[in-house]
Amino acid sequence: MTDLDSLRPTLDAVLDELIPARGDGLPGAGGLGIGAHVVAKLGDAAPFVAAGLAACDAQARERGAEGFAALPAAERRPLLERLAVEREGFLQSLVFHTYTGYYQHPRVAEAIGIPGRPPYPDGYELEAGDLGPLARVRERGKRYRDV
Amino acid sequence: MAETPVDVLIIGAGASGAAFAWSLAETRMRIVCLEQGGWIQQADYPTTRSDWEMDRFAGWGLSPNGRGRRDDYPINDDESPIKVSNFNAVGGSTILYAAHFPRMHPSDFRVKTLDGVADDWPIDYETLAPFYDQNAQMMGVAGLAGDPAYPPKEPTLPPVPLGKLGETLARGFDRLGWHWWPSDSAIATREHAGRAPCINLGPCIMGCAQGAKGSTDVTYWPVAVREGVELRTHCRVREITVDANGLANGATYVDADGNEHHQPAEIVVVACNGVGTPRLLLNSKSDRFPDGLANSSGLVGRNLMFHPYAYVMGIFDEPLEGYKGPTGCSIISQEFYETDPSRGFQRGYSFEMVRGMGPVGTALFGMSSGRLPWGDGHHEAYERIWDRTAGMVIICEDLPEACNRVVLDPTLVDADGIPAPKIEYRLSENSQKMLDHAVARGTEVLEAAGAKETRAEAPFVPAGWHLMGTARMGPDPSSSVVDRHGRCHDVKNLFVIDGSVFVTSGGVNPTNTLQAIALYVADYMKRNLANLLD
């Protein structure tokens, strides 16, 4: 078990702060299960992020909670913002991988109005568009030089 | 290991090598093409997967230096403000190109006569016109006849749909009274020559899983191979060899297992693009050609032209459906293409519209531009940019300068230990003035189209798609590398048929023109087979 695996509840709670639940019932990034994607993609940044998550828990405990996930909702974001300053770069790769994991999720695609599938094989319909205004382009005449 | 001699050896299976091979196949000569890459399977393209947008950071990115593919070779472009974007495979860079397929203008071949800059080409638009037509059939060019920016031409297929995004941007040009027209696009808008029709997947520049885009692995090559051309993949040429008389007599290459071979040939044809071709010629040194093959002029590698690109984008209030449809193909504008001295620079440029981004691309754009915070307000901020971006690339003509060049890097080598190219390039004052003008006009048109906010990047750093001029064509052996038929002045059985031979760059994507040149050279060979080497 890696540090990140043992910190998974904390990670999920942090991800829910980065991308919260939408008003239409779509869960936040943690609730949607983006954590597995983030853990898989962090690469060399994993130890640094794990240390940051551990610091989240430690500071939450100082406030009497069992960990970051148990902290009252109103206290989570200020704590994260403070840690982002204290540990420069802590949130940078976390935000990047959270955004990429979240916005390639089929449920998110459907929530923003597109099919929750890869483009191929079904593709998309595209309007032909109005070519009527080209008449004015034609009227203005030849636009290349004779040689 | 020596191979059976062939009549014609083509090096490179990209845009020009494919067209040339197909044209020459009817001669029934023994023709072999060596290609350092392999065939790409359509099922491997990113749009078949949910995480397709992330592939631009890995195996399907623009730069060969970042993809980690053995088939690519590294390019040292540290000393260039524009980074090379090419691809090595059957199909070459057409695998990842946008398939925007304009022709050059008649004036592009006469820049010295008309504008007093650079040099005239030894061939003209009329010479290439029948080969543009031939290429349109083979590549399957969609478009709309009647564009007043060109002499009459007939596209093969109906135009790519404008979509809401194209229509919105066209409105901006219309309001300003500027030229615009549906793009000529090498995209099968209906079934064509066995290719399935375009289904508007989106990111053509990451390859077409549908096979609708005209990359030469699905256009010329299947026919050429059927006609008897032998295409050997994963064969990387180390050098072109010469005999005691100074004639090319074949090429030495390394196969996928690292074994070295020599392929003897009567005629050698180089089609490796504006960086790969000078690299190969400079690597082909001998006692007879100590400065590289066909380089008595000292011009092999010099006069490198990119097209300096500007990228201008806008954010609109309305959804544009920009995530669907061919990325780079909707409309073109050539309002500022021809020279107007009052603008303060020579020559001109094209606007080419670019569709919007996918969900992940939108999020990363929002993140990098500070528009998309985490936490409270995230979803509202995302809604303000999702499917509301549209823009354009602006392709500026690059004039040739001897100081812009491809040389061999003193230390960098490819996976087979072959010296790699290094780019030495700077933007000219003329290019900078043109970029400034282009960004201002691009911003103007986006605002006229309704953009509430715009941003620009110029030069657009990763846009080194177009590689031209490094083995230029001309009548004088002291000031050019090849003659009007692509034949090297110094080596009469060695031909160059790719973008290297361009004398000037025009202000449009070069693939259509370089393929027309390849077809024109092949036609010349076919007409003169009996006495080609006399």
Report on the architecture of this protein.
The complex is a heterodimer of chains A (147) and B (534). Chain A is mostly helical. Helix content of chain A is 54%, strand content 0%. Chain A contains 8 helices and no strands. Chain A has helices spanning 3-6, 8-18, 35-41, 46-62, 73-86, 90-103, 106-111, 134-139. The radius of gyration of chain A is 23 Å and the shape is elongated. The model of chain A has no long low-confidence stretch (mean pLDDT 94). Chain B is an alpha/beta fold and 534 residues long. Chain B contains 11 helices and 16 strands. Chain B has helices at residues 15-25, 64-67, 111-115, 125-139, 163-176, 220-226, 273-283, 359-368, 378-385, 429-449, 511-527; strands at 6-11, 31-34, 76-79, 181-182, 230-232, 236-242, 248-254, 260-270, 309-315, 331-333, 349-354, 389-396, 405-413, 419-424, 453-457, 494-496. In chain B, strands 1, 2, 5, 6, 7, 8 and 16 form a 7-stranded mixed sheet that branches. In chain B, a hairpin with a 5-residue loop joins strand 6 (236-242) and strand 7. In chain B, helix 1 (15-25) runs parallel beside helix 11. Chain B is globular and about 75 Å long. The two termini of chain B are 30 Å apart. The mean pLDDT of chain B is 97.
Mean pLDDT of chain B: 97
Q: Low-confidence spans of chain B: pLDDT under 50, at least 5 residues?
A: none
Intertermini distance of chain B: 30 Å
Nearest-integer average pLDDT of chain A: 94
Question: What structural class is derived from the secondary structure elements of chain A?
Answer: mainly alpha
